[in-house]
Each structure stands twice: as structure tokens, then as C-alpha cells.
Design a protein that fits this description.
By secondary structure, this protein is mainly β. It is 3% helix and 37% strand. The protein is built from 1 helix and 26 strands. It has a 3-stranded antiparallel sheet with strand order 1-3-4, with no helix packed on it. Strands 6-7-8 form a 3-stranded antiparallel sheet, with no helix packed on it. Strands 9-10-11 form a 3-stranded antiparallel sheet, with no helix packed on it. Strand 12 (181-186) and strand 13 (190-195) form a beta hairpin. The termini are far apart.
Length: 365
Amino acid sequence: MQTTKICPVCGNSSGASPCSRCGFDESCNLQAYPTLSTLPLALDSLEGLRDKWHAAFSGRLRCEKCGGYGFYVSLESPYLTCMDCGFSPEDALLRPTPPVIENPYTDVCAGLYHSLLLTKDHAVVARGQNEAGQCDTAPWYRIVGISAGYFHTLGLRKDGKVNAAGDNTHGQCDASGWSGIRMVAAGASHSLGLKRDGSMLAIGDNRHGQCNVSGWRDIVSVAAGTRHSLGLSRNGTVSYAGSNSHSQCDVYTWKNITAIAAGAQHSVGLKKNGSVVAAGADDQLQCRVQSWTDVTAVSAGYAHTLALRSDGTVYATGCNDQGQCNVGDWTDVIAIAAGGFHSLGLRKDGTILHTGNNHMGQCSF
């Protein structure tokens, strides 16, 4: 069978690689070159084929069978044939490979009226209320963890130090001297820092004892509510400090906990088996989580609760007067955040899902 190998860039039929006319090398990534998008081809002439090449969009053309980039045109067949494996079906031998859209974000976080996104290059994107400067995170870099309080923001740096922005009325942003930190949590007006050795630091409003955490040991995760603090121990139990006005600190019976969250007046715990427990105020049904299963993450807002399931869908319960629990159609979610009166979800493709109050622009992504 007589064959002619055509350069996909200039149409040269010399058969050489690199092409003797334009220098194109078959082994190169074809993404930058004009390629075919509609197959099979009805060949009238090789000139006609070249015109089709130049008219096609610029994308990556690969063999469906072996993944090879090289192909040739037979003078006796209207189809392309893979140079690597010889594959040449009669229905679209080669197809453009869809572009891969990389998710630029790694985490989401929600405060009372502001929202945070942590990017893969360790920067922080902030939206929403900024009267106290809680969204002034643009200069931050090398951030690996974020937390949003009512009117302040914390950023954990790669070196174990902490950035803070926003309201500092109670000293909740005085974290510049902290070091060796592995996790941060921002409450209404207090801040928690979990050290690498499992001990704790706390600053800010302590009128309800929410900063009395110096005796905690072997902690692996922390959460800060309005006037209370939670610490998850390595053994799956939970330590607590602060106001217990609505029984939000009645967590001493919890066992086999793997994650925790703190709302305004309620606390949430994720168990090892994927079920969820809750304690505290339930006036808005924010603690009605007993039926939830296959949960991988939890988040507590002012008076609502979110849970991420293993299939990428999301549970929600509690106050919904601003639509903050309207998450029933969310899919492919990998991270969640419950704010004051809004909810955020990060999808696999980097899309930011949001619902609820947006009067401060906290959902404007």
C-alpha cells in the first residue's frame, strides 16, 4: 500500500521528521499545532487534507488505542492511521484530548460576613465585609492553613508562624509571636493555635474562659466557636473550654471522633464510622444530624451545620432564613465551609459553590 506521511503544520509530504520544510518534530507535543478535529475524512486530494488541517482548531490529537501522536494518510484510504500501532478504525480514529482544568484552590473558609479561599500557590483570596480589614490578605504568601472569625482572619504560614488581619479589639490578632504552629482556629473574638507538640496557645476575648486551653495536651485538631473552644485529642475524645450556656460543651461523652466544628452555640463531631454527633443549641435544628451517614467532613455556621459526604454531596441542617442550607443540588464537592449566614463548597474542578446571605459580597466568587 502506497503511503505518504504529511507534516500536520505545513503540509509537506517529504516524510522526514523533523519536517524538512518547517522543522516540526512528530515527537513533540502537538498541542501548539493546528490539528484535525473532524474524522473520518473524505479525501479528494492531499491538498484538501492539508487545508482541513489548517482549518481545524489547535488542540491535542492522539490515538485512542495507544496514545501516540504520530499519524499518516494513506492514498488508498479516507482514514488516518496511527504511526505507532497502526490503529485505523472507521469511526473517528483520532480525537482531541479534552483540556485538563486544574483546580487552583485547596480549601475554603467562611466567617460571619466574609469568605476565604486558599490557593495552590499558598495565597489567600478574600471576599466580603472588610470594615475591620479582615479581607486584607493580599500581601500574604506561603500560607498553608486559614481560618475566619467574626471580624478577623488567621493564616498559618509554612514556617509555622501566623498572619492575622482584622479586628483586634480583644487582642485576637496578636499572634505575631507564635511559632511552631500546625493549625489555627478563629472564633468570634478569640484565636487558637495548635502547636506541633500537641499543646495549645490562645489569645483574645476570654470573658467566658474560651482561652483557657493551656492545659490541653496531645491535641490534633481545634475549633473555635463564638464563646467556646474545642480540641480533638489523639485518642478520639474532645476537650472543651468556655461558655456552656446552651450545652455546647457537653462533649465529654464523645468517642471515636475524627473531626470537630464549632458554631455560635453548638458543637459538631465527626465519628470514625462516618456518622455525626452534635451538642448545644438546637432551636434552629442545627443539631439534627443523627441520621447522617458516610460523612467525611463537618462545618458549623452561626446556626446551621454542613457535612460533606464521601460521594461529593452535602448535608445541611439548621437555620435557612437566608438560604444557607440550600445545598441539595451540590455535587463533586471536596471541601465545605459554613459561615454566619452563608455556605461555601469547593468542587473538584475549582468551581466555588455558594448559597445564602451575600449582602456583603461574601459569596461573590
